[in-house]
Each structure stands twice: as structure tokens, then as C-alpha cells.
Amino acid sequence: MVVPTLTTAAVTSITTTTATSGGSITADGGGAITARGVCWSTAASPTTSDSKTSDATGTGTFVSNITGLLVGTTYHVRAYATNGAGTAYGNDLSFTTIPSAVPTVTTTAVTSVTTITAVSGGNITPAGAGVISARGTCWATTANPTISDSKTSDATGTGIFTSNLTGLLPGTTYYIRAYATNSVGTGYGNQIVFNTKISDVDGSSYNTVTIGTQVWMAENLKTTKYRDGSLIGTTPDPATDISAETAPKYQWAYGGNETNVVTYGRLYTYYAVTDARGVCPTGWHVPSDAEWTTLHDYLSANGFAFLGIIGSDDIAKSMAATSGWTTDPTAGNVGNNQASNNASGFTALPGGYRGIDGVYQQIGNQGHFYSSTASITPNQSLYRSIDFNNAILGPHDFRSANGYAVRCLKN
Questions:
Q1: 281-337, pLDDT tens digit by residue?
Q2: Which of 410, 365, 32, 370 has the alpha carbon at shortest distance from 218?
Q3: Would the CA dihedral through 305, 309, 313, 314 be positive or negative?
Q4: How far apart are CA 209 and CA 218, in angstroms?
């Protein structure tokens, strides 16, 4: 006597928790078939020690109703038959129960942002997801993107995956969500908003940030050239007194030290900033005083003021970088509890300024940012400043030959 010979029937009628299979016993091995059915497990090659049906006795074809399965789970099933010589098994078949819902997926934080690319991805929760036939990240310039928008296709299956986003536009706000598709439909992860970088004619790239209806550079301008490629002048000695010059068009590194440019950008005169050749990248411009006021009013009206009072001026902490400022003991001032700064993402830096006499001052204490608007006072212009020991975004006018930082605004 030998064990029986049999095959496993195809799995049909699959639901969320049940399925149908069975077997065909073609030879009894010389002994009576005392037990038959199918056995199943989430591991390959299940045995009668796992879950099983008991479907009468004898040879021939039989049907087995498999119950008590988990939703969206892959199982292995084999028919079995027992005679006096032992238990034999049919071929191993796998199947997946139907999910009860679309997959659960989270979106991975956006990294490695450039002017035209970025990296994200997602994590698909395995439980009940079933067979994931497609996964990736979708994006658009409007909220709640779907797979009808731009998307990546990043293989199949549950777990963590990485998506490489390409073909983006510089200086643009994007909304992204991870997605995963199973037999029920497509599920989406949480939405993340990010901005691509922009680059200037020198090849320097800059982070950007959307605040209200405006898109700003989130770093100070570094360029040594106008938009057409011509050089922005500088003085032979960084400390040259230019008080006798009329409409000087210069740029400098703070203190003449080029290493300062990496963090703080360059300092420009108003006359360079407003030159028709343009200091900002194509599609961007130096903001007017009115556009600075638009930024101020948005922050003041939308919960960015330190005391939360609509219309108040104490918005500087929401604009200032989270480190690098001289410390200050007064709550609400930029230098106090710096880790709580920068709720707006503007990331203002204390890059100081250059006076017309060639003296560099206030690095670590103050950040000064030109507007494109001239003052009614001759040889003066309007700018904004942030101080370590103050809570407001200060509006000022002063000498147009001073060297201040520039933040460009998208057209």
C-alpha cells in the first residue's frame, strides 16, 4: 500500500473571507480513503496540521468550502487524502482574499528637491490590502492630486517604496499624495505641499515658499550678475566709502568674505536692485513696498502674529530663521525661543548690512531686505527689516547706496 494520488482543484468563488477549492483523487494507493479535503495556511505547503476541511471519504472529485479567512490575505491551499499508508497532498495553489476597502497608504516626506525634480514615496499598510496592482506618487499644482494627474509607477506590493518625481517646473508649488491600487480601488496618502527651487544666472539655486497668494525665495539672493549675464559691479576694496558716488550699482559679500554668501547671500545697493537688466531670475522680481505690505497683511490676518491678534505687527518670529540670531530675553522677539520661529517658512536671515562708508554691521542681529520702491526722500528707498530684539517686520526708508539683502518674488 502507498499513499493516494491526487490534485488540488482551482480556487474559485473568492470573497473577503471565503473561497472554494477541492481535489481529485485518481488512485487510492491500495487502501481505503478515510479522510479527504483541503488544508490551507499563509505559508507555502500547508498540511493537515493547519486549517483544513473534512470532505467525506473515497476516491474521485470533491468540493471544499474554505471559510474563516482574513480579508485581503494571501493563502496557500493543497488538497489532501489519507489511507492506511499515510496522507498525500496535491499541488500547492495560492490565492488572495478580496480586500474590503482600498489600500491604506501614507505619503513619505519630500526630499532632494531641485528646480525640476524631487523624491518622495509611500508606505502601504499590509493588513487587508490584498494584491497591490499599482503604486506610486501623484502630483499637481492644485490640491488633492489623483492618478489622473502626473504620477510615478513604482512596481507593486505592500510596504515602503520610493518615487522619483521628474519634469517639474522651477519655483512652483506642488501638491503630492502617494497612491496604491487593489481590486477595490485606489487609496491615497496624506497630502504634502512643497515648492521646487529656482536658479539664477550664476547657477545658484534657491528654496522657495508659498505664503498666501505669493511665492517668495526662502533664501537671500547670491547672484553676481544681472539676468542678461552682465556683471553687477563691486568695489575694488570691500570697505570702500561710496558716499560721494551718484547711483552706485554694486554687490558685496558681507565684510568682503565670500564664505558669508553661502548662508546670507549678497548685499546690493538699491541702484543695482532696480537696474532694468534685473537681478532676479527670469519670472521673478524684486518686490515693491506694496507687495511687502501684502505679505505683512496676510501673516497678520492668518494667525502668524505672536499674540494672535488680527491686524497686529508682531509677525517677525513667523518669518525669521530658527537659528543664527542673537538671543533675546523678551518673549515674542525674534531672538527669544528661536526654535519656534519661521512658522511661515520665509526663513529670514540676520545677514546684516553695508553702510555707504564701507562699514559692515549687525550680522547675527538684523536682516534688511530691499523693496523696488523709492522713498519720497531723495537718494533713499523703502525696505523692510527684522531685528533680533524686536517682534515686528519694520518698514523703513534710508540711503539707497547702503548694501541690503534681496528676496525675489514670483511674477
A1: 999 999 999 999 999 999 999 999 999 888 889 999 999 999 999 999 999 999 999
A2: 410
A3: negative
A4: 6
Burial class (CB in 10 A: 0-12, 13-18, 19+), 323: exposed
User: What residue numbers bound the domain in which 40 lies?
Assistant: 5-96
**Is residue 67 pLDDT above 90, yes or no?**
yes
Instruction: Tell me which residue has cell 511687502.
Output: 292
Domain boundary among the residues 96, 120, 136 is at 96
Give Cβ neighbours of residue 211 (< 8 Å, ≥ 6 apart): 295, 298, 299, 344, 345, 346
SS3 at position 226: coil
- Same structural domain, 185 and 264: no
Query: What pTM was estimated for this model as a whole?
Result: 0.79
Cα–Cα distances (Å) from 163 to 102, 177, 358, in that order, read: 20, 11, 50
Please tell me the predicted confidence (pLDDT) of residue 129. Answer: 82
Cα–Cα distance measured from residue 188 to residue 180, given in angstroms and rounded to the nearest whole number? 7
Give the cell for residue 136: 506610486
The C-alpha atoms of residue 405 and residue 268 are separated, in whole angstroms, by 6
The total number of structural domains in the chain stands at 3
Cα 329 from Cα 127, distance rounded (Å): 51
For 295, phi then psi, to 5°, come to -60, -50
The reply to whether 389 and 361 lie within a common domain is yes
Residue-wise pLDDT for 171-215, tens only, equals 999 999 999 999 899 999 999 999 999 999 999 999 999 999 999
355 and 297 within one domain: yes
* Per-residue model confidence (pLDDT) at position 280: 98
Q: Are 246 and 342 in the same domain?
A: yes
Instruction: Examine the domain organization and report whether 179 and 129 are in the same domain.
Output: yes
In whole angstroms, give the CA distance from residue 18 to residue 40: 12
Residues 6+ apart with CB under 8 A from 127: 72, 104
Taken as a whole, the chain contains a residue count of 411
pLDDT value at residue 276: 97
The domain that holds 51 is classified in CATH as 2.60.40.10
pLDDT of 100 above 90: no
